């Protein structure tokens, strides 16, 4: 067996850890490229077999895990065709396909063939009775929209005699600079005395930044940012939309390119080309009023010239025409809207750029996003200076890079030895579908502490 990922995982904790080793067996369902396998092997597990149907994922899985001496595990193939699992199985794990529980998958749930795969999971659990299991899925599985289906699923686990706990876990809390919320379901066979005692791990105290793991940023030191008042940052009123990664007394660590939003680190199309103060006023007026119900029932509505002139009395039609010539506004049914009318489409192919000091990248997905990483740090005493420096020193100087497959590998907590797909796009898709390695490590460690007394003696020689 090659060097494990323990050394890399250790970087995600503030102090030296004594890593516990357990001797157990597991089967890796919906194995993907091995996000579950890496931490389970680090914890002392032996993989008895894996199930996966994607040929490109299988290629990478075998490349990283199977081509070693005495590698005698089973390639189980399609889960729907698996009749039984190895008799000496201790733990069953897997990232069950999530598309049927997401908006992208049209929320079809159990009506989607991929959603029905949960019933194959239940069948194998019931037939083989392993000591426990860990399964992962998108946050949407536990959303109000899918809650009845989720409660039904949990009930099915209980009916085949497992004590079940679930929690939404963010990978960010376990050592990677990625905000990735996923539902984890942990089960312990209910004939084990302590089956109800499982508790999900507490978030780590150490918080990793992009500059800690992205190779091009490793020469940068973290920046101590100024503390600023809400009056300076938000004109006195803190927006309700602020999330846990946006501090109310500091400038953001990322810039968003959008004509549909506003904020101290929002870059508009009229910021990037020469525009007059009057033109900026027209754009901001449209931005601030396009969601008012007075102008329509949509989340964002075009405004007529009369609507705009009511808001800006000295407005001239020639000024609107000039903004159309600059490709900022367009006319639709005698009304005006922004050319960049889809938020996540960004501007000029860019949606967000994250600074080296940032503690997060949004969730990596299989389809990708128009997100980039700045290769230069900046500081500012106020929002205007900060934004101006960003445009001049980072955007105009092209001091930013796309998120590569190698970056995605690190953002998902995969170890340095992991061999990625030779095709960049396929590799990024695979990491977007993968589970975060450190999250599984800490969740599984808590499970094994409970079931350790029940692990068969025969496994002591694994």
What is the assigned CATH homologous superfamily of the largest domain? Vaccinia Virus protein VP39
| CATH architecture classification of the largest domain | 3-Layer(aba) Sandwich
Question: What's the alpha carbon Rg, rounded to whole Å?
Answer: 26 Å
Helix content: 25-40%
End-to-end distance: 12 Å
Main β-sheet, in a few words?
A: 7 strands, mixed
Number of strands: 17
CATH class of the largest domain: Alpha Beta
Q: What ranges have pLDDT less than 50 throughout 5 or more consecutive residues?
A: 1-18, 101-107, 458-462
Based on secondary structure, the structural category is alpha/beta
Q: Mean of the pLDDT scores?
A: 89
Secondary structure: elements and pairs:
Blueprint: H1 6-10, E1 24-29, H2 37-42, E2 45-50, H3 55-65, E3 74-75, E4 91-95, H4 117-128, E5 132-138, H5 147-159, E6 162-170, E7 178-179, E8 181-189, H6 210-213, H7 230-234, E9 254-257, E10 266-267, H8 269-272, H9 277-289, E11 303-304, H10 305-311, H11 317-325, E12 329-332, E13 335-338, E14 352-354, E15 361-362, E16 371-374, H12 383-395, E17 400-402, H13 405-411, H14 424-433, H15 437-451
Parallel strand pairs: 1-2, 1-4, 2-3, 4-5, 7-15, 9-10, 14-16
Antiparallel strand pairs: 5-8, 6-8, 9-14, 11-13, 12-13, 16-17
Helix pairs in contact: 13-14
